[in-house]
TrEMBL record:
Transmembrane segments: none annotated. Residues 110-288 form the Mur ligase central domain. It comes from the Bacteria. NCBIfam families: murD. The keyword Transmembrane helix does not apply. Cell wall formation. Catalyzes the addition of glutamate to the nucleotide precursor UDP-N-acetylmuramoyl-L-alanine (UMA). SUPFAM superfamilies: MurCD N-terminal domain, MurD-like peptide ligases, catalytic domain, MurD-like peptide ligases, peptide-binding domain. The lineage of its organism: Bacteria, Pseudomonadati, Bacteroidota, Sphingobacteriia, Sphingobacteriales. Belongs to the MurCDEF family. This is UDP-N-acetylmuramoylalanine--D-glutamate ligase.
Length: 447
């Protein structure tokens, strides 16, 4: 019986506290453990409900007496407490897996190395504007588990990272979207690309012929898997390079979406999101919308008036004719490729942070073509120097957002763009990529 079963939750952030709230409602005994400090807002949510918790430690006797552990996606499997849980044979699941057992709404699940937050927010915007009763969760929005406990949505749009997918087993997406797969987080996957690819494809697990899988026909890693595996779901590819019968494709100036007898087209210049990668994001979201039978006039309006998320190619200011762009969410090389590819000016590029096993070679041509100077923002900038010393005349080291912005401002001239697009995690100098982006924006406004 559920009331005798104990659920332990590792990590007391948004997903952990949400899981605790749902588990309590379902009648489980609940204990929350965080090795770090718990934010006041989460402590008050736990205390108000009488949920037991600890911070700054893991009490093994408490944790290892669990029937099941819900683990925050940020905690790696090599963490000592996680190893002990695995050794004891206690099942570890993600918040999404746990909440999915009790969710009756339809799910649109979005993953990919790049563009997933933008596509998730765009899909949510389309559904909400069309009048659907829709929740937003996963890597963005409020905890999925908390919403399952307290709300009554008909649809959820879920952004799923590979870390969340890793601890999902029975969960099923009604509509799965895989945008692309490029090297990222390889430190969590034994530096084996195939492990990371397998993780991303978990978004399709358990799908049936009643479900849909939306994917990029132009993505090399995706297509390798598609060629060697059979999928139960109905397939809807999207492409910038070739025409497709079912799915979406783009010509030079128009996107076309076709799902069964449902046709839609829109000129690319009308899309709110510009740049090739964003055409892909718009097509993926558009296919999902047409599968849900959203009217063409509503879809057209939503694709045209969407405002992108903060820290993703976010315009900050124009000062003395110099454009400042905050792309702090670009924590891998491929994200930077997309950012540089969309620039139509010379760029002073602010990069650096905690390297995740980056291979910068894919940026060489773009950097030679577009970047006039690199401003390093990180404690250890050796890899950036090694990669670009012979490709860019000026590379400068800085140790704070304020210093980086000041140096970049003096290196740029009228008509240039100063682009913060780090290619690295933020934890050497900042609390998070949001903190890094906010400090960048504040420094720009002080110029």
């Amino acid at each position: 019986m559920a009331e005798q079963q104990k659920i332990v939750i590792l990590g007391a952030g948004e997903s952990g506290v949400g899981s605790a709230i749902l588990a309590l409602k379902l009648g489980f005994e609940v204990f929350v453990s965080d090795f770090g400090a718990i934010a006041d807002k989460y402590k008050s949510q736990l205390s108000a409900r009488g949920i037991r918790f600890e911070e700054l430690q893991h009490t093994e006797a408490e944790i290892l007496s669990a029937h099941e552990v819900i683990k925050s996606p940020g905690i790696p499997d090599k963490a000592p407490i996680v190893k002990k849980i695995i050794e004891k044979g206690i099942r570890i699941v993600s918040e999404i897996e746990f909440a999915g057992r009790y969710n009756k709404a339809k799910t649109i699940c979005i993953t990919g190395s790049n563009g997933k937050t933008t596509t998730t927010m765009l899909t949510y915007h389309i559904l909400q504007k069309a009048g659907l009763n829709v929740g937003l969760a996963g890597n963005v929005g409020q905890s999925f588990a908390k919403q399952v406990a307290e709300d009554n949505y008909d649809y959820y749009v879920l952004e799923l990272s590979s870390f969340q997918l890793d601890n999902m087993y029975e969960f099923k997406a009604d509509i799965a979207i895989l945008l692309n797969i490029t090297p990222d987080h390889l430190d969590r996957y034994d530096y084996k690309m195939q492990n990371y690819v397998d993780s991303k494809f978990r978004v399709t697990q358990n799908q049936t012929s009643a479900d849909a899988f939306i994917y990029c026909l132009d993505d090399e890693e995706t297509m390798k898997v598609m060629a060697n595996n059979k999928f139960e779901a109905r397939l809807f590819p999207f492409s910038l390079a070739q025409k497709v019968e079912q799915g979406a494709y783009a010509t030079e100036d128009t996107i076309y979406i076709q799902t069964n007898k449902n046709n839609f087209n829109m000129t690319i210049s009308e899309l709110a999101l510009q740049g090739k990668h964003n055409v892909n994001n718009s097509m993926a979201a558009g296919i999902a919308a047409k599968l849900l039978e959203i009217r063409s006039d509503s879809l057209r309006e939503s694709l045209g008036d969407f405002q992108n998320v903060p820290h993703r190619l976010e315009h900050v200011a124009r000062i003395q004719g110099i454009e400042f762009i905050n792309d702090s969410k670009a924590t891998n090389v491929n994200s930077v490729w997309f950012a540089l590819e969309s620039m139509n000016t010379k760029v002073v590029w602010i990069a650096g942070g905690v390297d995740k096993g980056n291979d910068y070679s894919m940026l060489y041509e773009l950097v030679k073509d577009k970047v006039k100077a690199i401003v390093c923002l990180g404690k250890d900038n050796k890899k950036i120097h090694d990669a670009f010393d012979d490709k860019v005349e000026i590379i400068v080291n800085t140790a704070s957002a304020e210093e980086a912005v000041n140096v970049a401002y003096h290196l740029a001239t009228k008509g240039d763009t100063v682009l913060l697009s780090p290619a690295c995690a933020s934890f050497d100098l900042f609390k998070s990529y949001e903190d890094r982006g906010d400090q960048f924006k504040a420094a720009v406004k002080e110029l």
